[in-house]
Amino acid sequence: MTDGRAAWARSYYRNTTGDELRSVLTLMGPRGRTVETHCAVEGSQDEPGGCETPRRWSCGGPDEYVAVAECAGGGVPDGTAEEAPLLLRSGSDPAPSAAG
To answer: Which domains does the chain have, with CATH numbers?
Structure first.
């Protein structure tokens, strides 16, 4: 998302499983700039929740940014997130140009 010279990523989710899930939202921009946000995903919600990276000054056009959202299980019995199963990975694509 952009607003003037600010850029950020936002994702929405609905977790009807009741299980603990984790979400990581990453915004990647020009010159190797990356912003990553970790969000807790509450379970059994009727309304969608959201996760958003902090807004940063953009250093390029909107087509130079890509956002990736990943949702994983809450972890294994010892609680380590590194071993949690990846359930969903979704990424953005740059908007198509007016020419095609």
So the answer is: 2-91 (2.60.40)
